[in-house]
Every structure is written in structure tokens, then in C-alpha cells.
Amino acid sequence: MLRPVRRSDEGLLNLYYADPRVARMYRNVPHPLPEGAVTAYIDDATSPERVRDVWAIDGSAQGHAEVMGLITLERMDRNQSEISYWVAPAFWNTGIASEAVRVLLDANPQNARQIYAEVFQDNPGSARVLTNCGFDYLGDAEAFSVAREASVPTWTYVLKMDK
Fold first, then answer.
1. CA–CA dist 29, 112 (Å, integer)
2. Do 145 and 163 form a contact (C-beta atoms < 8 A)?
3. 73 phi and psi, to 5 degrees?
4. How do residues 11-37 score in pLDDT, each as one tens digit?
5. DSSP states of 104-150 as a string?
6. Domains along the chain with CATH numbers
7. What's the pTM value of the predicted model, to 2 decimals?
8. 3-state secondary structure of 134
9. Helices (DSSP H) in the chain: which residue ranges?
């Protein structure tokens, strides 16, 4: 189930973001995680002036954790959005990320005509999620990783929603 992130998610988000395996695969997560970073993230994600919509991947209905990861959509120009997601290491290789991406694409809450995504090239699992969900490879680029304190090669993907 996808639901808006909420203040009660703070404990699990602190736990997951403190894991270097999560931080290294997400552009804007510092490692080590500074005090108050998750509080600020939740404040931003729940603000009426937010620039991205954030949902928790909630597994509680199936007896799992209330937060198994997060998925976001950031509005871009010309009815385009950028999707990003992560799943806690305990749930890697279970299909959770693919299911969450499919649910969000089916809902298309921002009514995007195109949805973009990028993944670090040393994260082929996330690339498979995108291709399994119908994204097409667009090209190579690079992005700065806060946790790695370096630019990292990326693969960029696009999904045209009017297919």
C-alpha cells in the first residue's frame, strides 16, 4: 500500500537512512545522517508548498513494517515528473519496488505525460525495476551523491504515459 509519509514514520526512516547501503544509492541522503535530517524531510514532504509528493511503501496490511521504503514523484515542466524510490535492504529482491512503481504509474497522480527516472549504474536492481515497469533507456549521465561525496555515473530512463 502507498500512503503519504507521516510523522510516525520518523523512527523507521532514521533507521533505514542511517544504513550506508540505502544512503549510497539515493542522491540526497547524507551518511552519516545528521541529527534532525529525517524530521526536516518529513516536514518538507508534508508541506503544502512541497515540490515533490512522497509516499511510504506500507506493508502493515501484510504483516510487514509500516515503512518498507519510499517512493516520490517530483513535478517537472511540461506535464513531466521524475520518479525515485528506495526499499529497505530487508526487502530487496522481493518485488516490492516493482509493485510500488507499478501502483504509482497506474494512478499517475500528477497526470504526467512522461515520467523520468535515473539510477546509479552500480545499482542494476533499480534499473531492472524500471525496465520491468515499461521504462525505456534514454542515456548515460552522472549525478552527485551526498553520501559518496562524488559524482556517480547514472542511467536515465523515460516512460511515455500515453503509450
1. 26
2. no
3. -125, 125
4. 999 999 999 999 999 898 999 999 999
5. HHHH-TT--SEEEEEEETT-HHHHHHHHHTT-EEEEEEEEEETTTTE
6. 2-160 (3.40.630.30)
7. 0.94
8. coil
9. 10-17, 20-23, 37-46, 96-107, 124-132
